[in-house]
Amino acid sequence: MLRSSTRRLRLFPKWRFTWSALFIAAGVCGCGDTLQSLVLRPSKEIRRTPEEFGFTYETLTLTDEHGTPISAWRVPTTSETKLGTIVVVPGNDANKGRYTVGLQFFVDFGWDVILYDYQGFGESGGSATFDGLITSSRAVFKHATENDSVVAGLGISLGAPVLIRMAAEFDLAAIVMDGTVNIWEITTQWTDSHGIGNDLFGIGNVVAALSSTEDFDTVRWIAQATEPKLFVHSLADNVAPFEGAMALYRAAPSPKHFFIVEGEHATAQFFDPGLYRNIINAWLTSIVLRDEAFTQQYLAILDEEVRATLLELGLITPEQAAGLTVSGGG
User: Fold this and answer.
1) How crowded is residue 152: how many other Cβ atoms within 10 Å of its Cβ?
2) Spatial CA neighbour of 182 closest among 121, 243, 95, 114
3) 3-class DSSP state for residue 320?
4) What pLDDT digit, counting tens, does each position of 61-113 carry?
5) What is the rounded CA–CA span in Å between residue 237 and residue 13?
6) Is the N-terminal amide bond of 255 cis, ω within 30° of 0?
7) Secondary structure of 48-102 in the HEC alphabet?
8) Helices 202-211/32-39 angle, 10° precision
């Protein structure tokens, strides 16, 4: 593992207990709509545009399968050599304006970037629903793959399972999942990770499954995502336990890789932006340019760093480290 710092960034402490508490509370109420309205917190105000960061952009108005208008921005690369298009799949409470801060990670490195609003978020029509996350994303990935032969995805928080679902449906070049939230299992994952072993909390998992569609059966869909996969997750994630991301990694087919970061939930890009940018771009470039020699050297170093860090933290034994591979099929 490559580690950006030994500090802990606490940007969103109020979310420490929220997800599991919401799922359990919704279960007690017996209301799936309650969970949906509590988890999805659509923001309508667009506070930033790409132009404020020095980037030109094109406004797109797409239409999902139900006729709902979906708003997106396409930001062209500033590099002379274009590698492809990256679609940024947002989390549960942000519109495309929030993700403009991350444009610098990709636009200057050969990637066109598409930012978009889910149904009910930002400038898109309709109301925020779990199904709307899927239909909105499907419209965006349909547009992206019809207009570029190389399309990758970056899913953040709740956007990660949405991206995994898209990867099972579209032929993507690569997918990156940052702070993956598995809503069907997050309640028991969170309680188990905090030593609260009680079957009662399983009600949260049941509520999540009943409140959403099969599109959020992430274990099922990750098994069908054959694209190269990079999991980015913090050992200190206070929303989606590290063990949950590792379970999805194990369920995923090769090729797959794991980048362990510092900070709390999905904050690595703020915690150490230089490391975040360099690791993800190096990984993406090695895949798109198919430089096998570079790829193997890079992955060998990544494996060595991850094993060393897990040993240092006492999370694995030397015997386990010998058989652990976090890049490829291990």
Assistant:
1) 27
2) 243
3) helix
4) 999 999 999 999 999 999 999 999 999 999 998 899 999 999 999 999 999 99
5) 11
6) yes
7) CCHHHHCCCCEEEEEECCCCCEEEEEEECCCCCCCCEEEEEECCCCCCCCHHHHH
8) 90
Between CA 32 and CA 252 the distance in angstroms is 29
Is residue 104 exposed (0-12), middle (13-18) or buried (19+ Cβ within 10 Å)? middle
Q: pLDDT > 70: what percent of the chain?
A: 72
- Chain centre distance of CA 198: 28
List of domains in the chain: 13-322 (3.40.50.1820)
Find all residues with CB under 8 Å of 180, minimum gap 6, and list them: 155, 157, 160, 161, 164, 218, 231, 233, 240, 244, 245, 248
Nearest alpha-carbon partner for 138 in 119, 156, 121: 119
Query: Which residues neighbour 278 within 8 Å (Cβ) at sequence distance 6 or greater?
Result: none
Q: What is the pLDDT of residue 327?
A: 60
Close Cβ partners of 243 (under 8 Å, ≥ 6 residues apart): 189, 192, 193
Closest CA to 40 of 24, 52, 58, 22: 22
Q: How confident is the model at residue 6 (pLDDT cuts 50, 70, 90)?
A: very low
265 with 237: CB under 8 angstroms? yes
CB atoms within 10 A of CB 203: 16
Task: Decide: 133 and 141 in contact? Cβ < 8 Å.
Answer: no
Alpha-carbon separation of residue 75 from 45, 259, 286 (angstroms): 20, 26, 22
AA letter at 83: L
End-to-end CA distance of the chain: 15
Question: Coil, helix or strand for 15?
Answer: helix
In tens, the pLDDT along 248-290 reads: 999 999 999 999 888 877 777 777 888 889 999 999 998 888 7
